[in-house]
From TrEMBL:
<keyword id="KW-0812">Transmembrane</keyword>
<feature type="transmembrane region" description="Helical">
    <location>
        <begin position="308"/>
        <end position="325"/>
    </location>
</feature>
<feature type="transmembrane region" description="Helical">
    <location>
        <begin position="64"/>
        <end position="88"/>
    </location>
</feature>
<feature type="transmembrane region" description="Helical">
    <location>
        <begin position="232"/>
        <end position="249"/>
    </location>
</feature>
<protein>
    <recommendedName>
        <fullName>Glycosyltransferase RgtA/B/C/D-like domain-containing protein</fullName>
    </recommendedName>
</protein>
<feature type="transmembrane region" description="Helical">
    <location>
        <begin position="261"/>
        <end position="288"/>
    </location>
</feature>
<keyword id="KW-0472">Membrane</keyword>
<feature type="transmembrane region" description="Helical">
    <location>
        <begin position="185"/>
        <end position="202"/>
    </location>
</feature>
<feature type="transmembrane region" description="Helical">
    <location>
        <begin position="100"/>
        <end position="133"/>
    </location>
</feature>
<feature type="transmembrane region" description="Helical">
    <location>
        <begin position="145"/>
        <end position="173"/>
    </location>
</feature>
<keyword id="KW-1133">Transmembrane helix</keyword>
């Protein structure tokens, strides 16, 4: 109950979400699959529409406003946490140990659980994969054939399906293969083939290659950044991984699960946002490992005190998160900003930073470039990242735009102040629009 209240108070809409609403709006309006990214002026070279289902779904949810997106995210997170609790109880974890593991999970993963992003689509499918493979490890049967079905649906929603396939692969190779070799190979082939059951079909591999090779991933920027010890949310995530990992290792993990832990640890080192999958993987075993305290500590009443400490930490996080997310969440005010931009620069292509650029796209403003970054040419991706960082090389992106939206006092604002041929329009808040003369 406390965790649900905490998440309900903190939920916000972040970057990497509203572009799907804009895409879904276009699909519903045109009653056809999109040709690239229709709301962006930069060329997209026939981007494969792999996650069309996610786009249309969010477009429909957004009909209820930003609140609809928050309810969708909040409900998805609560369902995922309920499934994690079910997984822990199936392993034999006690109620108190399960609640403690969930508290650590929520606090450590607050950057994911409190912000609605595209990643939200993967929370429930990932936990369902864990429930499935753990049940099959205990008692192999035909139920494993749910894996290709789950992968096929998941693949139409979010690229996190690749990590789910890796977890399934670890189970098939290191648990099932020695016992059922022929069936296991067939299952593996079917699961991989299920990745292509989407509107892009055989071009699915091209899509995922583009995602993994985009310039933000290469440069380790934004959602692709490695863990940073100076970032409080990364630090919470790493501390949570350490605590859950120590508890999980108190009970012997099967080989496939050890392989999955190692793989997701490497993925987390590459990009901090992957830490949520490692936390979800460890939560169930950690609850089981924390159920009994061996040796001379067995009679000490440590767990109730630990729960108090966990709730205090959760309260501290609750007080810190709103200020940390301020300026990074999207809301109804962005509709008013989009209207101001349209009035100040009618029929102009607008260059704007994340996440507000996605709100502009949703409200009918043609932007130069936005998420999905991998849909665009590499040189345009680099130019946009230069703009986001306020580097002098951002002028390449400026050249393709009729107006440039920046926040006052940022490095991008300083660069634009030195550009000739623009008129300055002050907008609501700290926003400044440079309109080409």
């Amino acid at each position: 109950m406390s965790l649900g209240l905490l998440l309900g108070l903190l939920c916000a809409v972040g970057a990497d979400l509203l572009w799907l609403v804009a895409m879904g709006d276009h699909v519903r309006g045109a009653a056809a699959m999109p040709d690239g990214v229709p709301f962006a002026a930069a060329p997209t070279e026939d981007w494969p529409p792999v996650i069309l289902l996610a786009e249309v779904t969010l477009s429909l949810v957004h009909e209820l406003g930003v609140g609809g997106l928050l309810v969708w995210h909040y409900s998805t997170v609560l369902l995922a946490l309920m499934l994690v609790a079910l997984d822990a109880r199936r392993r034999g974890a006690a109620d108190l140990a399960t609640s403690l593991a969930l508290t650590v999970l929520v606090v450590a993963g607050i950057a994911t659980f409190a912000v609605a992003r595209l990643q939200t689509f993967s929370l429930v499918p990932f936990v369902l994969v864990l429930l499935l493979v753990r049940a099959q490890h205990r008692s192999p049967g035909r139920g494993m054939w749910w894996a290709p079905i789950l992968v096929a649906l998941w693949g139409n929603l979010h690229g996190g399906v690749l990590l789910g396939v890796c977890v399934i692969g670890a189970y098939l190779l290191f648990s099932r293969l020695p016992r059922r070799p022929v069936e296991t190979v067939t299952l593996g082939v079917a699961t991989l083939a299920a990745l292509s059951i989407n509107p892009a079909g055989w071009r699915t591999a091209e899509y995922y290659w583009g995602v993994l090779q985009n310039e933000a991933a290469k440069q380790g920027e934004g959602l692709w950044a490695s863990p940073d010890f100076r970032d409080p949310f990364d630090l919470l995530m790493l501390l949570g991984v350490g605590l859950l990992g120590l508890l999980a290792l108190r009970r012997r993990l099967p080989l496939w699960e050890c392989v999955a832990v190692v793989g997701l640890t490497v993925a987390t080192v590459v990009a901090a946002r992957n830490g949520i999958w490692l936390l979800l993987l460890l939560a169930g075993p950690a609850a089981y490992g924390g159920t009994r305290v061996p040796g001379r500590f067995a009679d000490l009443k440590l767990l109730p005190h630990a729960r108090v400490v966990a709730l205090v930490v959760a309260a501290l996080v609750a007080s810190a998160v709103p200020s940390a997310f301020r300026g990074h969440s999207l809301g109804e005010a962005d509709k008013a900003l989009a209207q101001e931009v349209r009035q100040a620069a009618p029929a102009r292509v607008v260059l704007a930073p994340e996440p507000v650029v996605e709100a502009l796209a949703v409200h009918g403003v043609e932007v130069w470039l936005s998420n999905p970054l991998d849909a665009f040419r590499a040189e345009d991706q680099r130019a946009y990242l230069d703009f986001m960082a306020g580097r002098p090389a951002m002028t390449t992106a400026v050249e393709g735009s009729g107006a440039v939206l920046v926040q006052e006092g940022t490095q991008a604002d300083e660069v634009m102040a030195g550009e000739d041929g623009f008129e300055v329009v002050a907008l609501t808040g700290e926003w400044v629009l440079y309109v080409r003369s």
